[in-house]
Write a structure and sequence with these properties.
alpha/beta, Aspartate Aminotransferase, domain 2, 7-stranded mixed sheet, 4-stranded mixed sheet, 17 helices, 14% strand, binds pyridoxal-5'-phosphate, Aspartate aminotransferase family protein
């Protein structure tokens, strides 16, 4: 039988559970209650197979920056598909969409970052980065500079390389990660781990773990440090103000390449084009994906500074993906960047939606379950706690309250995700103040029902 949106939901869910292996999901979860079937979306609202209108507080997976249902994106894709659906960028061939997109990314990127290596996703781009930084140092005559330092609870993707860069223990427990030569220092999560220190003291202490790790490994053995400007999947962890300047000082002092993973922070999420700009970071490489195309097509890449790119290009870099610079994905991403500019969406984040979002989340912080609100641009988190002052954890299974709250949000037609007992939010950047009010009303109802 043909599967369509008009089939009964239970039937769709049964077929889905029988054949479709979902990321980060157990069979039991799907058997208990089938996956919610999303049929269409417009703006910030999803529609499911039962006709519910769900406010998407996560922009899909932190990616639909321009919102859903942009027909101009569909038109660009259709036109490109008809004209040149595919060609590769290997072996001295190129095409207009990849040319135009690389130029536009270079124009928007921080000064001196004029080079883009394309990939199909953030995971692939981070795999590229591992090989690129090691190759860079080898070409510079320092092959021992091969170790890479990352952070616990970081998320950099799911492939062997990017999952190894990531600092998720539950991922490392499966399938032989991390690969050798990757090390993890503590994260700047003051809320959960700061103890009695002030945020400023804690930020410095966590940054100095990088220096200690470099000294332990020997600076001649360290290629790079990778970090998200703000950890997203780790729980929207906004580092204390002291953190990034100290990290930058340490990278400069020891000649360590700095990779900023901008997969979530890039393309307006923190109110600037890149999180690196928001935090005053000077990376050598930035990982991009997600908001690059607002999720309308799969595409990612590494934005590379001139020095690293010139060394990498001096000999053949034996690396690339069939879909590096895919013409349809590139054309769609370029259109997305145009929309972000034509509609002044970064201004909207900085001056309209961001302040309303901050006020709304800070308003929710008076709820007895909520310990506070961390917000930057249009990403934020609400840690749930039984005791605001001490930032205590709930007794019992970690994340149980967060999961319950997420389920109550979903039942109230709001997508909010939980990371342990933290609720995290990252709506489309085009969300309006009225929609933010709807968000906050639904979130408060869900919190009341969880309490
Ligand atoms: N880096 C960061 C910071 C991410 O948040 C993600 C995905 O969530 C990735 C990399 C991996 O990207 P992808 O899922 O496109 O492979």
């Amino acid at each position: 039988t043909m599967i369509t949106n008009h089939m009964p939901t239970a039937e769709l869910q049964a077929i889905d559970a029988a054949h479709h292996m979902h990321p980060f999901t157990t069979n039991d979860e799907l058997a208990e209650q089938g996956a919610r079937v999303i049929t269409r979306a417009k703006g910030v609202f999803l529609t499911d197979s039962e006709g519910n209108e769900i406010l998407d507080g996560m922009a899909g997976l932190w990616c639909v920056n321009i919102g859903y249902g942009r027909t101009e994106m569909a038109e660009v894709a259709a036109r490109q598909m008809a004209e040149l659906p595919y060609y590769n960028t290997f072996f001295k061939t190129t095409h207009v969409p990849a040319i135009a997109l690389s130029q536009e990314i270079a124009r928007l990127a921080p000064e001196g970052m004029n080079n883009v290596f394309f990939a199909g996703s953030g995971s692939e781009a981070n795999d590229t980065n591992i090989r690129m930084v090691r190759t860079y140092w080898a070409e510079k005559g320092k092959p021992s500079k091969s170790h890479i330092i990352s952070r616990k609870n970081a998320y950099h993707g799911s492939s062997m390389g990017s999952g190894s860069l990531g600092g998720m223990d539950y991922m490392h427990a499966q399938g032989g990660m991390p690969i050798p030569g990757i090390h993890h220092i503590g994260q700047p999560d003051w809320w959960a781990e700061g103890g009695d220190m002030t945020p400023e003291e804690f930020g410095l202490a966590r940054a100095r773990e990088l220096e200690a790790k470099i000294e332990e490994l020997g600076e001649d053995n360290v290629a790079a440090f990778i970090a998200e400007p703000v950890q997203g999947a780790g729980g929207v962890i906004i580092p204390p103000e002291t953190y990034w300047p100290e990290i930058q000082r340490i990278c400069d002092k020891y000649e360590i390449l700095l990779i900023a993973d901008e997969v979530i922070c890039g393309f307006g999420r923190t109110g600037n084009w890149f999180g690196s700009q928001t935090f005053g970071i000077r990376p050598h490489i930035m990982t991009i994906a997600k908001g690059l195309s607002s999720g309308y097509q799969p595409i990612g890449g590494s934005v590379v500074c001139d020095e690293v790119a010139s060394v990498i290009g001096a000999t053949e870099f034996n690396h690339g993906y069939t879909y590096s610079g895919h013409p349809v994905a590139s054309a769609v991403a370029l259109k997305n960047l145009q929309i972000l500019q034509d509609e002044n969406i970064l201004d909207h984040v900085r001056n309209t939606a961001g302040p309303a979002f901050r006020a709304g989340l800070e308003g929710l912080a008076d709820h007895p379950l909520v310990g506070g609100a961390s917000v930057i641009g249009l990403m934020g988190s609400l840690p749930l706690t039984p005791h605001k002052e001490s930032r205590a954890k709930f007794a019992g299974e970690a994340g149980a309250i967060g999961l319950m709250c997420r389920e109550r949000c979903f039942a109230n037609n709001l997508v909010m995700r939980h990371v342990g007992d933290r609720m995290v939010v990252s709506p489309p950047l085009v969300i309006t103040p009225d929609e933010i009010n709807i968000f906050m009303d639904r979130a408060r109802k869900a919190l009341d029902e969880t309490w």
